[in-house]
Write a structure and sequence with these properties.
This protein is an alpha/beta fold. The protein has one domain: Glycerol-3-phosphate (1)-acyltransferase, CATH 3.40.1130.10. It is built from eight helices and seven strands. Strands 1-7-6-2-5-3-4 form a seven-stranded mixed sheet, with helices on both faces. The radius of gyration is 17 Å and the shape is globular.
């Protein structure tokens, strides 16, 4: 069945935080503070205003909540995610998402041209976008960043705005990967490490797959380097690739392998 189209509201140009976002934050921000405590470092690496893209690792379904809290409360910006389209089909919740600045990404069945155009419009209006370049939860056994997908990085290169790595660690203790065991606590810390701008100036929007893969690996390595600063252990010498391990590209691969 083809996925239905989700029409996005007009992109606000004079202010990032519209009334709908303030209303949701008024309810959600105090609640999230009961789930975890975000502890950011490296905020000084980010511009205080203007558009930029944040690229992050993905270890838990709760990652967007932690990052949204960090961006809205601690950076004072409006969080805009490229979110999987299925979330927009959830009753009530899905209807709210476009009005708080979230952009649906379709994994199959239709083009993402309109969605990517909306993301570019947010950036042109001076907003910030956050992406999880892995495209799904990491499959790495130790939760290190796995291979990235080139689509998100191509958008970053086409937009021409600064790109910054922002690694996090600790969300997976609140909601483990592919688990239903939600363990919130205001004493559980989510460490967030912001790195310096990733230099993608040598890449062009017209570059072919090989150059895009190179740029994507550069981004994933930058995220990994920041993650090493806030979690124990050593990343693998070879990045995990689901395809090489016979795993599905999206979704809960553990359930699909049973």
């Amino acid at each position: 069945m083809p996925e239905r189209e989700h029409k996005l509201p007009p992109i606000p140009k004079k202010r990032e935080k519209n009334l709908a976002l303030w209303a949701v934050a008024f309810i959600l921000a105090p609640l999230l503070r009961l789930f975890f405590k975000t502890v950011p470092t490296g905020i000084e690496n980010l511009p205080k205003k203007g558009s930029y893209i944040l690229v992050s690792n993905h270890t838990s379904y709760a990652d967007p909540l932690a990052m949204a809290y960090f961006i809205f409360v601690q950076l004072g910006r409006a969080p805009h995610f490229l979110a999987k389209e299925s979330l927009f089909r959830i009753p009530l919740f899905g209807r709210i998402l476009p009005y708080v600045g979230q952009v649906p990404i379709y994994r199959q069945g239709r083009s993402n041209q309109d969605s990517l155009a909306a993301a570019k419009a947010y950036l042109e209006a001076g907003h910030t976008i956050i992406m999880f370049p892995e495209g799904t939860l990491t499959r790495d056994p130790e939760l290190w960043p796995m291979r990235g997908r080139t689509g998100a990085i191509r958008l970053a290169i086409e937009s021409g705005v600064p790109v910054y790595p922002v690694a996090h660690h600790g969300v997976e203790k609140v909601l483990p990967r592919y688990s239903k065991k939600f363990r919130p606590s205001p004493f559980k810390k989510v460490f967030i490490q912001v790195g310096r701008q990733i230099d993608l100036s040598v890449y062009k929007a017209t570059d072919g797959p090989e150059k895009m893969s190179e740029a994507t690996e550069k981004v994933m390595q930058a995220i990994t380097e920041e993650l090493k600063k806030i979690r124990p252990g050593t990343p693998p010498t070879k990045r995990w690739d689901p395809k090489e391990s016979g795993q599905a590209a999206y979704g809960n691969y553990q359930k699909k392998q049973k």
